Structure formats: structure tokens, C-alpha cells
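Working notes for the structural subgroup meeting. M.R. asked for a predicted model of this chain before we commit to crystallization trials. I am recording the input and output together here so anyone reviewing the notebook later can reproduce the run.

Input as submitted:
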Amino acid sequence: MDVKINCGSGQRRFDVSLGWVNVDLVSREGQVPDIIADGAVLPFDSASSSLVVLHHVLEHFGCGEADGLIRECHRVLQPGGSLLVFVPDLWKLAQRWMIGEIDDYIYCVNLYGAYQGDPGSRHYWGVRRQSLVRALSGNDFARWSQIKPFDWRLIPGADLAKDWWICAMEAVK
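Returned structure, recorded in C-alpha cell form:
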């Protein structure tokens, strides 16, 4: 059975009627996942998923701390399956902030995170496209056949935020 995994679902639950399973480490009022689990140990069989989405998740880990999560995403993906990763692009945000096109609030919320009462809601690491590609490809545990910018195709049931400041990448197993 194919499952599609929204790992780190937080505020953006995906449509379970279209085959999505929402997974998060914590459950908060209004942000209740289908499964509470640590992303470093996902409760899915190997090669059971065609699609795993990390939608604004990696920035909540310190440098190198997401290796276990990426390893698990790779493990649960079927050959040819995709890991979609979406993070704030701090390079683009900083450029616009420095010339006054965005205010301090927008810049800082994306840089530090919107605190929701626990340390996991904070941002601990920032990326730009090159460092995200390096994080996905620089480890010997995950062999991807391809890493490329996400093409913003429609993913049924997925609520994907699309904006100028979002770096979106696809790693294909």
C-alpha cells in the first residue's frame, strides 16, 4: 500500500481523504497530527511511500541535526519516490530586508521562527538553495538519483505554501 507522508505537519495538515498521513513530534490545539512520532524513527515500512514532504521542517533543526530525518525519509521512499523539501530562503529574505522591501517582523519571523510555546517551534538553522542541496546530497546514507528545484506541480491534497522567499527542492530516490 502506498502512503504519502506529510512529516512535520504542524499547522499544515494535508488531506487524509487523498492518502496523506500527517506526522509530527507534538500535538497542539488546532495542530493535531494523525501520528505522533519522531521523524528520525518513522513508523512506516521501508519503500512504502511514493512521496514524503518536509514543509518548513528542516529549519527547526540545528546544523546536521536532521540527518536522521533525511535518512528515514529515504528509507520509507519507494524507488523513484520523491522527497519534497520547503524552507525559507534566507538569502532571498536578507536581500529584500537589506534594501527595505520587507520589514523587520517578516524577516525575523522567517529567520527565528514563530514561537508557539515550545523550543521546537523556533528556527535553528537557515538555508539557501546551495546549502539545502548539500544537506540532501552530502551524506552517504541517502543516495538520490536526482536533486532538483521543485517544479511547483499540483500535488493533490497537499497544502504547499508558494512564495518568492521559499526554497523548494525535490530529491528523487
